[in-house]
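Quarterly update from the structural biology core.
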Amino acid sequence: MDEQPQLTSGNFVFDATEQNFEHVVITESHKRLVLVDISADWCSPCIVLMPLLEKLAAEYSGEFLLAKVDADENMRIAGRYKVRGFPTVIAFVDGEEVDRFHSAQREPFVRDFIEKSLF
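Predicted structure, tokenized:
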């Protein structure tokens, strides 16, 4: 049975793993946008981007979910989605990748990315 996500920040942010990815990302993306942030603890741009993503997840109050993937612990997810650098943020809608961006970005860019992905 799939492991259930540990939700934080008003229940809009959770840790995704190889064990729960199908349920918490793919299944949830049929209900609303899911942003998957694939990052690593040692990555400086990842450390810069995560607080912004968490802030926006709380601000959007559930219009999208933010799934955090630790690439070092979940290498198969990074490999499956051909991640070549960290952080990589992938937008999922209806079980499919619809867009992605790499590296830390400024807030206006990330807001625009979310808005375009929400349709």
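Strands lie at 7-8, 13-15, 33-39, 64-70, 88-93, 96-102.
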